């Protein structure tokens, strides 16, 4: 089932710009909270965080690179506008995540606080990206396509992928940090599952 990128409500270029900017800032802030507590998340952001912890590579460059193979898939399945917006958003989050480390230093944040705040902030941010026909690349692209095709809510699809990331994380991070990370991912995906529904926002 195809997605109409001009579905109601239709966003102007200015509306898209402000919506995507706000959502990218929220997503980057969520990642910043996770890193401050040594936590991870699911999707390609989780893969990038794991790689950054294991290798010392910078999150921004890793996140940007991991997402590159998914844009062709997004272009074919959801069209050029969605693919381009997703590329711009991922690039913005990659840059902002590095800026926040310098501009908003965080020390001593409890993992529970980081997980809960991440789940809410990044969940609302990702919801905003979906409303403006964009994504954070990777798994979120696949989740949207599966929702379009089979009617399975994107939040639940993402959560299924996230569980695999957390199982891998158990070989790298302490179990306690993985459990707190899972709480953040659960909150994020619950927000998506409850609020991003094809019967509300998608016109076929």
Q: Helices and strands: which structural class?
A: mainly alpha
User: From N to C, what is the helix and strand string?
Assistant: HHHHHHHHHH
Portion of residues within helices: over 70%
SS field, number of helical segments = 10
- Low-pLDDT runs: 1-8
Main pleated sheet: none
The chain-level mean pLDDT equals 85
Globally, the shape reads globular
| Oligomeric state of this protein | single chain
User: How many extended strands?
Assistant: 0
Distance between the termini: 7 Å
Radius of gyration: 16 Å
Overall structural domain count: 1
Tell me the fraction of residues in β-strands, as a range.
under 5%
Give an overview of the whole structure.
- Residues 1-8 have low confidence and may be disordered.
- Helix 4 crosses helix 5 (80-103), helix 4 (70-78) runs parallel beside helix 7 (138-150) and helix 8 (154-169) runs antiparallel to helix 9 (175-195).
- Helices cover 76% and strands 0% of the residues.
- It has one domain.
- It has helices at residues 13-37, 43-55, 59-67, 70-78, 80-103, 111-131, 138-150, 154-169, 175-195, 198-201.
């Amino acid at each position: 089932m195809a997605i109409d990128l001009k579905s109601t409500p239709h966003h102007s270029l200015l509306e898209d710009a402000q919506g995507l900017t706000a959502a990218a800032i929220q997503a980057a802030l969520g990642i910043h909270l996770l890193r401050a507590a040594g936590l991870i998340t699911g999707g390609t952001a989780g893969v990038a965080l794991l790689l950054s912890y294991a290798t010392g590579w910078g999150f921004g460059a890793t996140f940007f690179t991991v997402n590159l193979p998914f844009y062709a898939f997004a272009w074919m399945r959801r069209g050029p506008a969605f693919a381009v917006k997703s590329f711009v958003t991922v690039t913005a989050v990659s840059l902002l995540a590095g800026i926040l480390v310098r501009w908003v230093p965080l020390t001593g944040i409890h993992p529970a606080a980081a997980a809960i705040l991440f789940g809410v902030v990044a969940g609302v941010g990702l919801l905003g990206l979906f409303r403006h026909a964009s994504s954070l690349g990777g798994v979120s692209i696949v989740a949207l396509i599966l929702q379009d095709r089979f009617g399975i809510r994107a939040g639940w699809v993402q959560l299924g992928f996230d569980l695999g990331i957390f199982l891998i994380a158990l070989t790298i991070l302490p179990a306690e940090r993985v459990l707190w990370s899972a709480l953040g991912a659960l909150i994020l995906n619950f927000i998506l599952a409850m609020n991003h529904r094809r019967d509300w926002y998608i016109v076929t």
